[in-house]
Amino acid sequence: MDQQQAKHAVAQAALKYVVPGEVLGVGTGSTVNCFIDALAAAHVDIPAAVSSSEASRVRLVAAGILVRDLNEAGTLSVYVDGADEATPARQLVKGGGGALTREKIVAAASRKFVCIVDESKLVKVLGAFPLPVEVIPMARSYVARQLVALGGQPRLRDGFTTDNGNQILDVAGLSITDPSALETRIGMLAGVVTVGLFSRRPADVLLVAGSAGIREIR
Ligand code: 5RP
User: Fold this and answer.
1) Pair 205, 217: CB distance under 8 Å
2) Whose CA is nearest to atom 2 of ligand 1?
3) Burial (0-12, 13-18, 19+ Cβ within 10 Å), 94
4) Is 13 buried (19+), middle (13-18) or exposed (0-12) by CB count in 10 A?
5) What sections of 109-139 are H helices per DSSP?
6) Which atom of ligand 1 is nearest to the CA of 117?
7) Which domains does the chain possess?
8) With contact defined as beta carbons under 8 Å apart, do 50 and 70 qualify?
9) C-alpha to C-alpha distance for 83 and 197, rounded to whole angstroms
10) Which helix (H) or strand (E) is 179 found in, with range?
11) For 186-198, what is each residue's pLDDT tens digit?
C-alpha cells in the first residue's frame, strides 16, 4: 500500500465513527480531504459539519455538506483530523497545513477526537517534524528568541498567513520527551496563539493505516 492508498484506507475506516444525525467536526489536510470525499460518497446522514479551516470549508461545501459555525453547533460528538506526527500514546504534532489553532479549538469542543494517519506519521518521540507555532505577527522575533532558548531552531513559514491573520514559526531541532510540559511552556509565551502539540488533549482514537491494514490505538 503506498501513502496515498493508506490515506484513502484510513479515511474510509474513520467513517464508522461518524454519528448519523449529529454535527461532525472536520479537520484539515490531504488525509482529511480523502475523508471528506469518503463522507460525501457514503452519503452519511449528518446535518452539518464544523470545519477547522477555510480550505476544508470550501471542500465540504463543494461536496454538498452544510458547514456551521462552532458557536452555533455547541459541543460536537466527534472530530476527525490528521496529524504530522503521532505517538502510540496518541500525542500529536499538528499544523503542517497551518490550521493548528482552529484544529485545537474544534478538538477541545469535541467529545471524541479521531485522528487518522498513515504509518509514516507514527513515531516514538515527537519533534522530527518541525513543530508549528502560530504567533501574532508583532511577537514573531520575541517568540523566536524564546524558542531558541528552549533549544529549537525556529524558521518563519515564508509567505504564509493563517486563517486568523497570523504567522507560523516552524521549530526544528526539538526532541520532545515531555510533550505536555512543552505544550504548556510554549503556549504561555506572550504572542503565541497556539503551539501545534496536541498532548494535553490528545486524540482519543488513533487510526493508523499501513501494510498490515488499519490499526486502532485507544
Ligand atoms: C493541518 C494539519 C494536518 O492534519 C497535518 O498537517 C496532516 O496533513 P496531511 O494529512 O496532509 O499529511 O495539522 O494543520
Assistant:
1) yes
2) 95
3) buried
4) buried
5) none
6) 10
7) 3-122+200-217 (3.40.50.1360), 131-196 (3.30.70.260)
8) yes
9) 10
10) helix 179-187
11) 999 999 999 999 9
Q: What is the pLDDT of residue 1?
A: 81
Ligand 1 centre distance from Cα of residue 29 (Å) = 4
Does residue 180 have its Cβ closer than 6 Å to ligand 1? no
Give Cα separations from 100 to 39, 104, 106 (angstroms): 22, 6, 10
Rg (CA), the chain: 17
Atom of ligand 1 nearest to the CA of 100: 14
**Distances from the Cα of 151 to the Cαs of 46, 54, 147, in angstroms?**
45, 33, 7
Q: What do you get for the CA distance between the two ends of the chain, in Å?
A: 23
Q: Which of 211, 213, 197 has its CA nearest to residue 87?
A: 197
60-118 pLDDT, tens digit each = 999 999 999 999 999 999 999 999 999 999 999 999 999 999 999 999 999 999 999 99
Provide the grid cell at 192: 503565541
Ligand 1 center to residue 2 CA distance, Å? 17
**Which residue, among 11, 28, 31, 176, has the nearest Cα to 100 in the 3D structure?**
28
Q: Please write the tens of the pLDDT for every residue from 104-133.
A: 999 999 999 999 999 999 999 999 999 999
C-alpha cell at 129: 517534524
